[in-house]
Known about the structure:
Shape of chain B: elongated
Low-confidence stretches of chain A: none
CATH class of the largest domain in chain A: Alpha Beta
CATH topology of the largest domain in chain A: Rossmann fold
Low-confidence stretches of chain B: none
CATH architecture of the largest domain in chain A: 3-Layer(aba) Sandwich
Order of helices and strands of chain A: EHEHEHEHEHHEEEEEHEEEEEH
Strand order of the largest sheet of chain A: 2-1-3-4-5
Strand content of chain B: 5-15%
CATH superfamily of the largest domain in chain A: Response regulator
Oligomer: heterodimer
Number of helices of chain B: 12
Mean pLDDT of chain B: 86
CATH class of the largest domain in chain B: Alpha Beta
CATH topology of the largest domain in chain B: Heat Shock Protein 90
Structural class of chain A: alpha/beta
Largest sheet of chain A: 5 strands, parallel
Structural class of chain B: alpha+beta
Radius of gyration of chain A: 21 Å
Amino acid sequence: MKIRTVLVDDEDLSRQILREYLRDEEDVEIVAECANGFDAVKAATEHKPGLLFLDVQMPKLDGFEVLELIDPEVAVVFVTAYDRYAMKAFDAAAVDYLLKPFDLERFRTALQRVRRRLGESVRGPAASELKNAAQAPGQYARRIVVKDGTRVHIIPTGQLDYAEAQDDYVALHSAGKSYLKQQTISSLETALDPMRFVRVHRSFLVNLERVTKIEPYTKETRLVILADGAQIPVSRAGYTRLKALMERS
Amino acid sequence: MHPILSTRNSFLLYLAAWVPLGLMLGFMLSVSGRLRWTESASITFPIVLVMVFVCLSPWYSCRSLPLRSTSKEKLLGQHLIAAMCVSTAVVVIAQILVAAFGSVFPGLQGQFRPARPVLATMVALIYLLSIALHYTLLEMESSRRAELLSREAELKALKAQVNPHFLFNSLNSISALTAVDAAKARQMCIHLSDFLRNSLRLGERAVVPFAEELTLTRAYLEVEQVRFGSRLRVFQDFDDGCSDCEVPPLLVQPLIENAIKHGIATLVDGGEISMTGRRSREGVRVVIENPFDPDAPETRKSGFGLINVRNRLQARYGSAARLEIQVEENRYRVILSLPCETRKVKLEEKAARE
């Protein structure tokens, strides 16, 4: 079976090279070409490719955000002129990292790696989990990307009211709407600024700016009331964290 | 060179500071010894003359005992010993003067005795004061030197540089073109060479005619045009009067680079960069406008190019030049205004001076 491949680069000529180099590869089939991040996510969902050639800097979504939203089993080869993302790319379990411009020989090495990876077919952790490992200290996500079918939603972190853990997913609540994302609440917590988001409960992460009131609930627990009226349970440890943060600000 | 002796003004200022000090010294002497003002003045004046020179000497001792790297005990000990030596020497000189003036002012010898400890204390205090002054001067000089060095380093760092990623991306485009359109690949090599050669040549100069900066910017746009194809559209309109204004090199090109990187490249369908230049009596006004995606991914966000241009303007023109940024929803506008210095104006100014 051929390796179904999607080319993602906003520059026509960059895709042109990939096309040229792939022409003689019998086992590779190009199923789609995309010029921006949204299209890439859409193509990855619709065509179920085995391989993605991915640029980093693109309109709409960057390469890493695309990676977060697609099936982690897809082999990804980054193609970019910037060497500064290499560490982050390998942390995100990319198969290879091609620096523009590259020659055919280098390209074939990358393809060999892809074949080996696809042969192994071990399921790695989701890219959204790995992305945090590559996060620079003191730098927190400014937005969260979520996929809904083939559509992509972008939630600026300031507009996130609270997040709720639901098995392998988190439900992100923003402006009265709720979005499901495949990510653990702990990894979301590490991606967000700890001065603005508090883990008030094992299953709940709250935007501090939205908290209007804290009420007693049972003997051990409390409730926080958010600006939109949502009631979130607060555990005892969560209350300690919340109080510490509120006293600091 | 001693900082006080390095300029005439600083030396005069130093002498002026001695007038109140001398008056105070004379006053203290006349009070403590009940001397008449003529007696007090005839002793004080030569002493002050000696002190004027003695109090310049801490420059050397202060330099050999830097504040930061010398222990407190050593610092205090050395300077106190010096102050005591100076004060003893001055009292001895004063005693000699008193003896010499004995014939002119009878009874002076006896009157001076109670004034001696006052004189010794005053001289020691003034000497210690001069030490403090010299440490202040040293500190000022070292901070000024540090500022000068950092400024130099800054200017070096700010020197217009070609963005290496622009090169890699362009070379990648050429690499792609060689297989599909060799003529176009060759053409792009030529545009790229034009741009590189010019940016190297202009980058070495302090100022270049605006027309040359524009040529460079256009060469840059030619290269980017190949990369972005129909996504990049350019509108330009410049007054002829701008051409011979002398501007720092690579002033407009980084702004265009910015407009592409943070503007056109963030848009799926690209957009139009508009650049206009107007010449007025105040100088040149360049406006660069481009659309951008306010929701672009984080990887794009950085404004180093703009800061660099702003700092270079500041370094050269101070407040006479401005770089203004206006953001409206999805439009980004940079307004650059700077005085127009033409070579002709400079020659005329030079002629007028001579």
